[in-house]
Structures are given as C-alpha cells and as structure tokens.
Design goal:
Layout: E1 3-5, H1 18-21, H2 26-29, E2 57-59, H3 65-76, H4 88-97, H5 106-112, H6 121-136, E3 139-145, E4 150-153, H7 162-177, E5 181-186, E6 191-197, E7 200-206, H8 212-230, H9 232-241, H10 248-266, H11 270-274, E8 277-278, H12 284-294, E9 301-308, E10 311-317, H13 325-336, E11 346-350, H14 353-356, E12 361-367, E13 372-378, H15 384-400, H16 403-412, E14 426-433, E15 438-440, H17 451-469, E16 477-481, E17 486-491, E18 495-501, H18 507-523, H19 525-528, E19 533-535
Parallel strand pairs: 2-5, 8-15, 10-19
Antiparallel strand pairs: 1-19, 3-4, 3-7, 5-6, 6-7, 9-10, 9-13, 11-12, 12-13, 14-15, 14-18, 16-17, 17-18
Helix pairs in contact: 4-7, 8-10, 10-13
Length: 536
C-alpha cells in the first residue's frame, strides 16, 4: 500500500516493526527512530550549523604567550608523539605561530619571537614549497591520524606538509592533555578549524570568509565521505591494531577521487551550507507518479533514489528509515565521480553515515539514460539479480507513463532564470524549505556571470548565514548593503531565504519584493520541491 506523508529528506519517522519483518538486518536498523538530520536545530531538520564554538572548547586565540611557549616546549622537547620529526622547518613554523596564536600580544610577539634556525637545503625547499601552496590556495582541507600519519590533503601531495602535520597533531594533543578540545586558530587572514574524530583528525584552513561552524561542517562531510567508503568500524579496527596505520592503503586512488569530488561539491554550493538538497523542477503530478512507481515490494530494500546532475528527482524509502541530506550528498558525489557507472549496472557496498556508520548497505547503480540515474539500496548482499528485475519493471512503467520524457524536459529548465519571479530588481536568491530540507535557487545572471563575481556573492551569503545562525546571538533578519548589492537574509521556523538586490532599492521595497518572492515560491512549491514522501 502506498502512503503519502508530508515529509521528505531528513524528516524523522517512528520505528516500526514492519521494517524488521521486511528482512532488513536488525543490526542495521536498530535505533533508527532517533536519527535526525546532523545539522538540524528543530524537528524537521533545519540545516543549522554544528556549534564548534561551545563553551567547553578552546579557541587558541584566548591562549596567552605562556601557553604558546608551552606548546613549543612540548614539541621541541619531544613530549608529544606527533608522528613526524620536529625538524628545523617545523621549528620555523612554531616561531611564526607565536605571532598569530595570541592575538592580544601580536605586536610584542613580533619583536620577541626567536630567530628560526637555518634548515638544511632540501628541508628548506620542501618547507618553502608547502608554504607557497598554503598561501596561493585560499582553502585547504587536511586529514591525518592522531599519530600524525598523513591521509589526505586538498592541494599537492601529503608528504609536502609533514612538518605542518606534526605541528597540528602537537597542538591538538597538547590541548587534549588539558582535557579540552582545540576548536580553531585565527590569524590575520586565515581561519584554521579542527575536528577530532578519533582516531582521525581533520583540519581546514580558509581565507574565504567561512565561519568556524561552516568550515567545521565541511570537515564533518569529509569524515562522512571516508566513512562511506570504509565504515567507522573498519577505521577503528585498523587503528586499534596499529596506531600509526597508513589509511591511504585502503582509500587508494578511487577513495581520493571521491574526497576531491566532495571538496569540489562543497565549494560555493548552497547544499552543504544549508544542509539541504535541490530538486529537479517537475510538475507535482509527474513527481507523484514517479514516487508511486518507486514503491516496490522487495525484501531487504531500504531506499529507491532517482537523481540527475546532482539533483533529486524522487525517492521512496522503507518505513522508519530516514535518508539524511548529508547521505544524499554522498550519493550525488558517488554518481558524479564514477563515469563508468554509465556503461552497465553496478553493484557495490556503500555506507551511509547518517543511516548507520558502522556497516555497509549494498547499492545497485543504474543509468536510465544519459543523465537520469537510479540507485536501489538494500541490506541484502546478494540482492543484485532481484533488483535488476525490479529495475526493468520500474523503467518500463516510467517510459509508459512518459515520466522519463518529463524529467528530460525538467532538466532543460532546471537552471531557471530569476526573471521568472517577475521581480526586476532581484538579482539572485536562495530559498530553503526547512521542513523538507530542500532548497531552490535560479541560475546566476548579470552581473554574476563570471566565477569571481559568483564567489563574492556566495561569500556574502555565507556571512549573512553565519549571523543568522550564530548561536550566542541568533538573529531572524539581516539587511546588508554594499556598494554593488543589497543582501537580505530572513530566518523563520518554516523557511530561510537569502536575496540579492540592486543597490538602489529602498528598504521598504526590499521587504515588499521579498514578500512577493515568497508568494511566487509558495505558488510553485509542488514544482520546485518534493512535497510528498513515499514509503513501502
């Protein structure tokens, strides 16, 4: 029986015994009833930021010079197992660190910092090359083990940053000894954020205006991406056997490809910032017909997901099972970075951290045409032949009802123009429906045709987003004017919206036009969003 419920991605459902009766492993479905969106602040999942600036955390900016010197003494004295030699280039990094780790005394530190020792020629070249990469790239993401073993870096090779890995490991270990957690380090032009997921350590370095919570969320996504490949249980087992285990031997080139893909996905994409997914625009009747088609009675089947070009078309799920937005993003990344999926049906193990980070599900990935991809996710490791037969039936029904043709037309219109709203002073907007954890935005148009201009606008969105969600002083409405645009952010229990207007619009006109935009979105809601969830 098909049941239509006003819930979608990330919404919480009560546990139901029918889930176990359907044949799914109890270990995989245990305690599913308390799963909620990892970025949710309220019942339906809001996509609000993870708080990385809790009172229990330590911001190294609050450390006085005495603490900085303690860290340096610990490193130089070998008191911390950093997993890398504390060589001359690391000593130079430490001396430079004293200028930025105690902001209140930075001018005094500049005069009192010890002169760096002269490193050997080869070490000096490596250090300078790593320093140039850090300066020339505005964002870096690093993954290493608690023993300081390199695992992944966004730019260059891991070996280029061994001294930096040793420094980061020592800083985190020093604060850990004090029974606290290092959250962030801020310099004059860079923000460094740490995420400790023992036995892994994640660090992000940015000069693009990200807040601590926003960069911290990106580090969570990197953790989820690694877990989706290996599972948290496998990672723990490897490091329990050997503390300095090299995890790169398990990730190999394909794993690095997915990590690179996730980094690209997070750059200037509202999906991760909002904790939401974007849907392909479709008439509500067509989307509902697709949803009914995806409801099938197969033992062990957990999710049926239909996607195209990193956008959601429709999905169905087992009762009591929730597909988090972060897991949907992992599926998008998997499909977009595996071009060989287009040739044949593929069967692969897949961990969805928001569902169960300790074990694998199994996915059959099948392209229905050049762009449309169907993922059938099951708990049955031997379910491939059965799902192939079910897929053939689904494709037949979609073609008979001409849904595939409707999806193709929807993909051609997915990048709709802001002029569709009829608001001529509106340049761009991003709207999130908080109940559904879904968002919509038009294509960029003049004056944001160039990537640099788009990046600048996205930085403004991030700034307003941070001010709306900043937990010590949350705000519901932000109006920010610059010489070239006006940006308004509005947060309610139902939606959050970010709008960009021409700089000549008055305050009253901005409010009136935002209300007009909200009425237009409400009118187009069934077309822009997946409103009804389908369960089996």
């Amino acid at each position: 029986m098909i049941k239509r419920q006003p819930t979608a991605v990330g919404a919480e459902q009560p546990m139901n015994a029918e889930a176990l009766e359907a044949g799914v492993s109890p270990a995989l479905l245990a305690d599913r009833h308390d799963l909620v969106s990892p970025f949710a602040a309220d019942g339906g999942g809001s996509g609000s930021d993870v708080n990385y600036e809790a009172n229990s955390g330590v911001d190294i900016r609050r450390h006085k010079r005495a603490n900085t010197n303690k860290i340096k003494q610990v490193l130089r004295g070998g008191g911390v197992d950093s997993g890398a030699e504390t060589d001359a280039s690391l000593t130079s990094s430490l001396d430079n660190m004293s200028l930025v780790s105690s902001c209140e005394d930075s001018s005094a530190s500049e005069h009192q910092a010890a002169a760096p020792r002269t490193p050997p020629v080869n070490d000096d070249r490596e250090f300078m090359a790593a320093k140039r990469r850090l300066r020339n790239n505005m964002k870096h993401l690093f993954v290493l083990s608690y023993a300081g073993k390199p695992i992944y870096c966004r730019h260059g090779a891991e070996e280029d940053y061994l001294s930096l890995y040793g420094l980061m490991t020592a800083l985190v270990s020093f604060v850990d000894v004090e029974k606290d957690t290092l959250q962030s380090v801020r310099t004059s032009d860079r923000l460094v954020v740490f995420l400790c997921k023992k036995p892994l350590l994640f660090a992000g370095v940015t000069g693009l205006g990200d807040s601590v919570s926003q960069l911290g969320k990106q580090l969570v996504y990197m953790y989820n991406q690694i877990v989706s490949i290996l599972t948290a249980k496998t990672i723990k087992k490897c490091f329990d056997r050997r503390e300095n285990y090299d995890l790169r031997s398990l990730l190999d080139d394909s794993g690095r490809k997915y990590l690179h893909g996730m980094c690209d996905f997070m750059d200037n994409n509202p999906s991760v910032l909002l904790g939401a997914v974007q849907c392909v625009p479709l008439p509500g009747s067509v989307r509902d017909l697709i949803g009914q088609t995806l409801v099938v009675d197969v033992k062990g089947l957990v999710f049926n997901v239909l996607i195209a070009k990193s956008q959601l078309i429709q999905f169905s799920r087992m009762k009591s099972c929730v597909l988090q937005p972060s897991d949907m993003h992992i599926l998008f990344n998997l499909v977009e970075n595996s071009k060989n999926f287009r040739e044949n049906d593929h069967w692969l193990p897949l961990c969805l951290p928001g569902f169960d980070e300790s074990g694998y599900l199994y996915a059959m990935v099948s392209y229905l045409d050049e762009n449309i991809c169907l993922l059938m996710i099951t708990a049955a490791y031997d379910g491939f032949p059965t799902l192939q037969g079910v897929k053939a039936s689904i494709v037949q029904k979609l073609r008979k009802s001409k849904c595939l043709d409707a999806i193709t037309r929807g993909l051609m219109k997915r990048d709709y123009s802001v002029m569709s709203t009829g608001l001529y002073d509106l340049r761009h907007f991003v709207y999130k429906q908080r109940q559904f954890c879904q968002y919509t935005c038009p294509a960029f148009s003049a004056p944001y045709e160039h990537i640099e201009d788009q990046n600048n606008l996205f930085t403004l969105y991030k700034t307003v987003h941070h001010r709306l969600h900043y937990s010590p002083r949350p705000t519901k409405l932000i109006y920010q004017a610059t010489d070239s645009e006006i940006v308004l952010g509005w947060l309610t229990s139902v939606f959050e919206v970010y709008c960009c207007f021409t700089p000549l619009v008055s305050n009253d006109e901005v409010i009136n036009k935002v209300n007009t935009l909200l009425r237009w979105i409400r009118k187009e809601e069934e077309k822009l969003f997946l409103v009804n969830a389908y369960t089996f």
